[in-house]
Amino acid sequence: MDFQEFKIHFPTTISEQLAEFVSGTALLNSRYIFTRSAAFGRQYGYCTHCKQKFRNEQTLKHKSEATCPNCRSTCKIQGSGLGRKYMRDQAVLIWYEKSIVAPQAITARTISVVRDYSGDPEQVETKYHVEAMYLFLPGEGGIHYVSSRQKQKTVFSHFDKGYSGASWPRFHCTDNIKQAVEGTPFQYSTWEQYVGYDNHRHVSDMVQFFDLSAKYPCIETMSKSGFAHLIWDKLYGRQTHGAVHWRGKTIFKALRLSKTDYRDIVKRNLQEKFTSDVLSFFQKERRQGATDGIDVMLHRYQLYKFSTEADKRFVHGFIKPDDLFAYLLKQTNRPRSFYRSITNAFQDYRDYLGECIVLGMDLGEDRYLRPNNLHGAHQKTSSKVKIKDNKLNEAKIFLRLQNELAKATYDEGGLLIRPAVSAAELFQEGKRLNICVGSYATRYADGETNIFLIRNQDEPDKPLYTCEISPKDWSIRQVRRYMNYDVPDEVMVFVNRFADRMKHMMKKSKPKKAVAI
Length: 517
Fold this sequence. Notes:
Layout: H1 3-7, H2 16-26, E1 32-37, E2 43-47, E3 53-55, E4 65-67, E5 74-79, E6 88-98, E7 106-116, E8 127-137, E9 141-146, H3 158-161, E10 170-171, H4 174-181, H5 207-215, H6 218-224, H7 228-236, H8 251-255, H9 259-267, H10 276-287, H11 294-306, H12 309-316, H13 321-332, H14 342-358, H15 366-369, H16 374-384, H17 391-402, E11 410-412, E12 415-419, H18 423-433, H19 441-445, E13 450-456, E14 465-469, E15 476-480, H20 489-509
Parallel strand pairs: 1-5, 6-10
Antiparallel strand pairs: 1-2, 2-3, 4-5, 6-7, 7-8, 8-9, 11-12, 12-13, 13-14, 14-15
């Protein structure tokens, strides 16, 4: 569509509604009373909003505020004799309207508005400039031209591209959008759900949502079915892993789910669990012939997503993947299970196998390979593994504490986290919390892992929680308390903040690469 065909969808004048929105919202703070002094101590004022002159009953001070006696507007006081070379107010807004020639389509214009007070205040007018124009045609998508009449390849927000600075306040009007979409297919698009972004300071102009809604018929159904988070991923530009067939004409085709799986997910209100990466994994497993129910598939995903490839290779050296999954699922679903998730069970099983090797146990025997009670078996092997006094390990740990772990201490909200100071301390920690952390001493000394101890600040010597963190990317591997129980959510929040802080510190401390000249 060329510009001549495009522009006939738009009005050629500024509507009364638009002018009212600019005056009453976008430039609400652009109301002034300009004062001038006269003989005998008199002072006169001119209101830029109602454009009326009047005599002030009392002297108004420059930069103060007062109410106009005519229009009752709250105005800023500006002395006429003072310099105002750079005095101007500005804002940018998005304005939606129905297409003039296509009843089912809607239009939008990004408009900058400016009032320049550097000259005669009685001659100030609001200047409107259309920066961008959008046309949304149901079934076709959005068409986007900029003020230079250049057609853009994609629909993008000028709020984000050209007016992201603080000097340009941004505005949209939900009542205006509601009026524009009424009687069109966009009325039912659930646009109201996508007005507010996570960043409350961000003002959306909604053009990207209406572009999606115009292109893809599945948007409305996905929103109403509880899969709005997938649409948010698209709007935020996040990776969607190819999980959604956006041009799918039915919800089943769009999500690539069978009717049975879709209905089961919706019936059990599991939509939020099916993020784009979970959905992609689920689809792949189904294509490969997996017939497990929803719960089992979610456990499969946890094991797939949150276990490292190295750990999986190690464990798969003793047990087949399908047998491993069946065993861990059984342990997770045991009555009064210690494991909140299959990932926790996997981590304990990995440690258990390592301890079995240290103890010389024959993993060819099923009673050792797959103990009936993994948690109980793990506790027994942990208690048998004794870390001998190793001067080399102690020296290595000492050097790590002087170098890469020198600043790895953090406290907040009554909690303190610090690195373990010796192999002996790790052994005592494991003994008092009844966990297997002592067996990590050599790996900790060699820099293969990081072990941190979490304390209450007022009881710094009393073991509370123990944490394992990757030294490569500061990702959290596990956090344990007494008897290997999971820790409270607030402790996980604390540990995440510490890990994020360390990631930031490591990035800043990385030496810059030399550049050849």
